[in-house]
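User: My collaborator sent over this chain with a note saying "see what the structure looks like." That's all I know about it. Can you take a look?
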Amino acid sequence: PQKKQVLVKYSGGNSTNYFPGQMSFQESNFSLEILNTSRQDGQLYEYSVSKGPEEEVQQLQLKVYEPVSAPSIRVLSKELTNGSCTVTLNCTSELGDHVSYSWAGGSCSGNSSFLKLSWHVWNTSTTCFCTATNPVSTGAVPFDPIECGHEPGGSHSPLCL
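Assistant: Without extra context I'll predict from the sequence alone. Here is the result:
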């Protein structure tokens, strides 16, 4: 014999919720909400409706994702050559499941956490955005090339970041 855990039972127009405080069942549209969802709630669920001698059974796979945290951008390398600033950036989000990254804005685009970006030091009007996304949330952070400054010590030759 197979054992199943019953969350809600509906019979004769009345419902019994076996997990009040954890589950909310709406008789009006037969929706079931898991309250305070946790990763442990991600599993296979079975939904069955009995009408006389017939039973209809459906299975649902619930996936629970941790939302992404605000991403941060780290400069991996920087180089100044012939008045052009070139940086390699890495965008990461500390939290989140199944995170994908994209870059957009100005002259930058990409679908990876890494981006190699070049611009002329006198043209700092381009801002790039890194976006971290998963199925339940999105976070974005800008990288502004205006952060290119001058070398410390009074030198006027530009230095990337």
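A starting point for your reply to your collaborator: The chain has no helices and 14 strands.
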